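Dear support,

I submitted the protein below through the web form. The confirmation email said the job was done, but the results page showed an empty box. After a refresh the structure appeared. I'm attaching both so you can tell me whether what I see now is the final result or a partial one.
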Amino acid sequence: MYTIIGGSIALVAIISFIIYKLTRPKPFEALMEKITDEEIATYYSIMSPGVILSIFDQKKGPIPLVEDHSLSIARYRNRIAIGIENFLLKISDQAYSSLGFEEHTDERRTGSIRLPREQMIGMIHGVQLENKAARGGFENLSLIILADNEYGNLLLSYQDFLYEDIDKLISKLKSRKPLVDVQETISEVRRKSVIVMLAAQQYEQAQNGK
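What the results page shows now:
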């Protein structure tokens, strides 16, 4: 009897330990959870110029579709010699060209663009939506997540922590949700990008301090 009871207790302990190991936050995710609303508010526009979702128009080429940005503030406006509207068109075109939409793929399509004049780096993620009326049977969209040049490499290095939010956006696009819902998720992606960059900064500082 005691052997059975002892074995049961040991089994429960092992299962509990396994569950703990699987569910406890990993080091980087734990840092993300500790980022405060105050930190996000302080660094929001400093780190993140904005997030733009562009679409390939059959007549006009790549054009912005949904935007959440702070490009009109002095910090960024003074860097954009061609004007904000032309800048958005420029990065939409660069993102589309960089992603290479010649063929359809179900794999994650990512890339980056560097904007030395504007002192920004853009993480880009491709989205293909089935549409029989479109050329090739798909609509091609580019999600452009901009970061200030100082923090852009952090965004690129830890971009996989944004994939969950990006996948939510793709799900809304595939289900043809209203643009107001898409706009909400775009804003969530921008906020998460700031969290990722702040956590990445702290993580690398801790690693370098070892």
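Response: this is the final, complete result; the empty box was a page-load delay. The chain has eight helices and five strands.
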